[in-house]
Structures are given as C-alpha cells and as structure tokens.
C-alpha cells in the first residue's frame, strides 16, 4: 500500500469586514508537510504591516470626504440634465457627451468605494449606497461586479482564477492566443497592442450589457428586482431623454461619444494596475502579502492622477487593504513601499504613460505569441515545486 504523505492543519487567511484586514481563522485546512526544495523568496508578514496601518488610523472611515461626494452626485446629475435640455438639439452636445462620460466614470469610482465598504462602517449602508450609485446613476450591476471583483482580489493575475485576465478579446497569455480558433478574434489578438485603446471605446457598452445579462440570467442574484428597476431607469431613461431632446442623428452620435469616453476612461484606469505584471500559473500558491504586492502596479502622480484614476493608482495598497478609504491610500503608500523594500518584496511604481507603454508592449508580445516578457523567476521556481 502506498504510504500517505504527512499532513497538518493550518488556519485559513480570510478577510474580516469588521477589522478591515485579512486575519487567520481557526477553521482548519489540510496541507501537505512533504519537504520541498528551498528557494530564495521575499519574506514579509501581513499581520505586521496591518497593525502598523491600523495604528496610523488609516482604516478609519472618512465620512466627511464621502458625504460631500454623495450629496454632490445627485446635484451634479440634476444640473447636467438641466444644461442638456437647455442647450437643445445641436452638435455642440457632443462636448456634453464627453463630459458625461467622464462624470459617469467618477460616479463608478464612488460606487466601487461603497462596494468595498470604504464609506460607512455599516455593511448594509455600503451595500445600498453601491446599488444606488452603480446601478441607478451609472448603469452597472453591483451583483455582477462583486462576483467578478472578489475573485480578482483573491487571485490577481492567476490563470484560471482571476476573471480580469479572462477577457474575450485581449489576451494576457500566449496560451490564450494559441487556443483561439476564430480567425477574426485571433487577428485582433495578434494586433491587440496597437488596437488596445481603440478597443477600450467599446468597454462602456460591454459593461452595460454585462450588467443586463447578469440581472436577467438564471443565476442567483441578490436583490434582483432592485437591480433590474435601477438599471431600467438609468439605461432606458437616459436613452429616452437623449432622443427626446436631440434629433435621431445627433442622439446616436451623442450616445456613441458618451459610451466611448466612458469606456476609455474606465479601461484606462484599470489597465495600469495589473496588465504587464507577472502572470501566476494555475496551481501555484503564494502568501497573501507577496501575491498582492507582486501582481499589482502603482501609478505615481499628484492629486490630478488620484482623481483621474479614482484612487486605483494606489493599487498595491488597495489590494492589501480593500476597505481603506480612498483618501488614505496616498498616506499608506510610503510606509507599505518601505516595508516591502526592506523585506525584498518587489514593489512596482511607475508614471502613468510609462505604465501604458508597459501594458501595450506586453500585450503586443503576447498577441504575437512570444514568451511572456514579465514571467517572474520566483514563479518559475514555484512551478517546479
């Protein structure tokens, strides 16, 4: 009879909404204690940096910051609708459409913060705020987003786990290109570096369609009736308003510009975060701190970049502490960067245009089926363990 490998029970690392950090539970899981080859790895203790961050008060809610934005959102929406109606049927409304696309993006960032429980201490208040902001004001499904985004936060850039790297058009691994049988889709992937930003113009409509597909699917959806109602008011009402004020040709152009700007703004804020960072092969296990830091990229810049990217430019800090209020991320970044560098954990921070260059070069090489230029030696070592 084949001898069984020795096993031991260890605690599982799970996220605690109450404390705002990941903690070790007493719930056991079985892991093998079979000796493994020793390889040089970065060393860090998430609990240590979590205590430092909490001690600095960076997980405390910033109620005034968010109340100003929550009150401003319906006020700006009302003013925007009034201006739109007053301007009337003219091609100058295409400028209004571009502004609307940017404002919807900023509202989406606010919904993102609520869904991550950054705004209120009450989970219920955060949840309903996210429904109102994301579904009613932006036209995105929080139910769809939470399912997808939770998996991304747990396994960033891991093959078979992170839905953000399983995109229908953009390929982030050569294997994705190789397994694509559709000739038009394969051609797009082979030219995805050059077509990246043009393709983002379709991201807005893709997000809206994903929301509708989710709430009308047979999958279980919490508060389905609420989401359907909010989405119909937002999407149907917005289209009806546009065609009521504008002639058909101008209305179609208005919607096209608004969706294109919204898609590019959303995609350009998410693209620098993980694209071009190491892709983790399926089955490889990494400790939480190493996984989140090594697979994320920060974007340097001032307050303008913080606003433009909705705080997602502090991607490392956001992944380590998802409930940290957005205005605290800037303060947390220097201490987390120092902690990582002292322990040999690669902490990546680039300029905005530099990050876009990295992303485009990376997906261009992947599209041409070249070897992953960002494959990490440490991950290669782990793959053989």
What can you tell me about this protein's structure?
The protein is mainly alpha-helical. It has a domain at 63-154 and 194-269. Helices cover 60% and strands 7% of the residues. It is built from 17 helices and four strands. The protein has helices at 46-55, 63-87, 93-115, 123-138, 142-154, 174-178, 183-190, 192-200, 203-215, 224-245, 248-274, 288-294, 303-308, 315-320, 326-342, 352-367, 377-383, and strands at residues 7-16, 21-32, 297-299, 348-350. The strands form two sheets. Strands 1-2 form a two-stranded antiparallel sheet. Strands 3-4 form a two-stranded parallel sheet. Helix 8 packs across helix 11 (248-274). The protein is globular. The two termini are 25 Å apart.
Short descriptors:
385 residues, mainly alpha, 60% helix, globular, disordered C terminus
